[in-house]
Amino acid sequence: MARVNEHYLKLKAGYLFPEIGRRVKAFAAANPSAKVIRLGIGDVTRPLPPAVLSAFHDAVAELGNEKTFMGYGPEQGYDFLIDTVIRKSYGPLGVTLSPAEVFISDGSKCDTANILDIFALENRVAIGDPVYPVYNDTNVMIGRSGPADERGYYAGIVYLPCTEANGFFPAFPEEKVDIVYLCSPNNPTGAVATRGQLKGWVDYALANDAVILFDAAYEAFITEGGYPRSIYEVEGARKCAIEFRSFSKTAGFTGVRCALTVVPEGVTAKTPSGETVPLNRLWNRRQTTKFNGVSYPVQKAAAAVYSDEGWRQTKEIVDYYMGNARVIREGLTSAGLTVYGGVNAPYIWLKTPGGISSWDFFDKLLTECHVVGTPGSGFGPAGEGFFRLSAFGNRENVAEAVERIRKNLK
Ligand code: MLT
C-alpha cells in the first residue's frame, strides 16, 4: 500500500493564506452586500508597467513565428536576463556576480522551499518568529522536525524571537545552528536589517560553518538610504549566503512568476566524511533535473523591468505602494494604534488594540469593518497580539479601509 509522507500530517493548520481566503469567502457569501477590502495576502494590484507589457507582447509574438520560435530554454535562465540582473540590479550595489551564480526561477516561495533539497536533514535550522510561513512549513514537510507543541513550535527547529524588544531582528541562538533564514525587509514585521546586523549574522555563519538563506524579495521597497539591499554588500557573505529575489512584488509579477536565486561559488557545505562541496553545483544539478526554466516571454518581460523606461515605471508603482503604506501607518497611528513597518517595507505590523488576540482582531475587522488583514499569530507564536496589513491594495480602498478602522476604534 502506498504510504504518505507523514511529516505533512504534523502540520498544525492549513497554509495561512488559503485559510484566510476560506474565512473571507464564507463571510462574503453570508454578507453579499458587504464591500470587503482585502489587505491580507501581499498580492499586487497595479498592472504591469507598460514597457514590461510591451516586451512581454513582443516575445509572445516571437513564439508565433517559425524563424524566432524557441522551445526549451536554459534551466538556469536566459543569459540576457541573468546579465541584466547582474549589471542593473547588483552592479549599482558594488556587488559582482558571475552568470553561473544566478538562477532564474518561477518564484522565491518555491526557491526558499526547494533549496532544502540540497541540504542534509541533520542540519539544525533556525528561523525567525514570526516568519514567512513557508520557511517553517517546508522544513516540517521535509522531515526536519518533530511534532508541534501546544504553542505551535515544532521540535527540532530553532526559533529566534523577533519582538518589539529586539526591533524585530533575531539575536543569535544559544545553540549552534547550520542554516538560518533571514528576511529583510521583513515579511511580516516590515523591519529592515542594518548593515551591522547583517554583518553580525555573516560573521556568525562564517564562524559556525553555517549557511544563511537570505530572502530579499522586498528589497525594492527600501526607501531610506544606508540599508543593504543585498546581503552581498556585506563582506564575507559570498562565502556563506544564498540570496532570493523576486519580480513578484517589485514589478507586478505575482501572477506572471519570475524570481532569481543567487548561489555564489564560494558557498559550501560538508559531506559526512568532511569533504567540502560547493552548493552552486548541487543547486544547478537540482534545477536542471527538476525544473525546466521560466518561459521566454516572462524572462523578456522581467528583463524589461531594467530598461530605462521600465525601471522608471516600476519605481512609480513601488512608490505608489509605499504611499499606501504611509496612509495606513499614519492613519492608524493617529487612531492610537502602535504601528511598525511601512517605511522600508510594504507591510504594516500593528499591535492589536486592548491586547485582543490576532484572530479575534481578524474577525473584528472582517465582520465590523469588512477589512481583511493577516493575524500575526499565523506567522508564528511570537506574532500573537500583532496584525499585518498589506500596502499592495489600490489607494482608494486602502484609504477607505483605514477610515473604517479609525471609525471603528473611536
Ligand atoms: C504574503 O502575503 O506574505 C505573501 O504574499 C506571500 C508570498 O509572497 O508568497
List the helices and strands and how they pair.
Blueprint: H1 16-30, E1 37-38, H2 50-63, H3 79-90, E2 102-105, H4 108-114, E3 125-129, H5 133-142, E4 158-161, E5 179-183, H6 195-208, E6 211-215, E7 241-246, H7 248-251, E8 259-262, E9 268-270, E10 276-278, H8 279-290, H9 296-304, H10 308-334, E11 339-341, E12 347-351, H11 358-369, E13 371-372, E14 374-375, E15 386-390, H12 395-409
Parallel strand pairs: 1-13, 3-4, 3-5, 5-6, 6-7
Antiparallel strand pairs: 2-8, 7-8, 9-10, 11-12, 12-15, 14-15
Helix pairs in contact: 2-9, 3-9, 10-12
This protein binds D-malate (MLT).
The CATH class of the largest domain, by name, is Alpha Beta
**Roughly how much helix do the residues carry, as a percent range?**
25-40%
Bound molecules: D-malate
CATH topology of the largest domain: Aspartate Aminotransferase, domain 2
Which strand order do you get reading across the main beta sheet? 2-8-7-6-5-3-4
Mean model confidence by pLDDT: 97
Give the SSE order as H and E letters.
Answer: HEHHEHEHEEHEEHEEEHHHEEHEEEH
Q: Which band does the percent of strand residues land in?
A: 5-15%
Mind explaining what this structure looks like?
This protein is of the alpha/beta class and 410 residues long. It has 2 domains: 13-47 and 309-409, Aspartate Aminotransferase, domain 1 (Alpha-Beta Complex), CATH 3.90.1150; 53-307, Type I PLP-dependent aspartate aminotransferase-like (Major domain) (Aspartate Aminotransferase, domain 2, 3-Layer(aba) Sandwich). The chain contains 12 helices and 15 strands. The chain has helices spanning 16-30, 50-63, 79-90, 108-114, 133-142, 195-208, 248-251, 279-290, 296-304, 308-334, 358-369, 395-409; strands at 37-38, 102-105, 125-129, 158-161, 179-183, 211-215, 241-246, 259-262, 268-270, 276-278, 339-341, 347-351, 371-372, 374-375, 386-390. The strands form 4 sheets. It has a 7-stranded mixed β-sheet, sandwiched between helices. A 4-stranded antiparallel β-sheet has the order 11-12-15-14. Helix 2 (50-63) runs antiparallel to helix 9 (296-304) and helix 3 (79-90) runs parallel beside helix 9. The protein is globular and about 60 Å long. The model has no long low-confidence stretch (mean pLDDT 97). D-malate binds at residues 41-43, 109, 132, 187. The site of D-malate (MLT) has 6 residues, from loops.
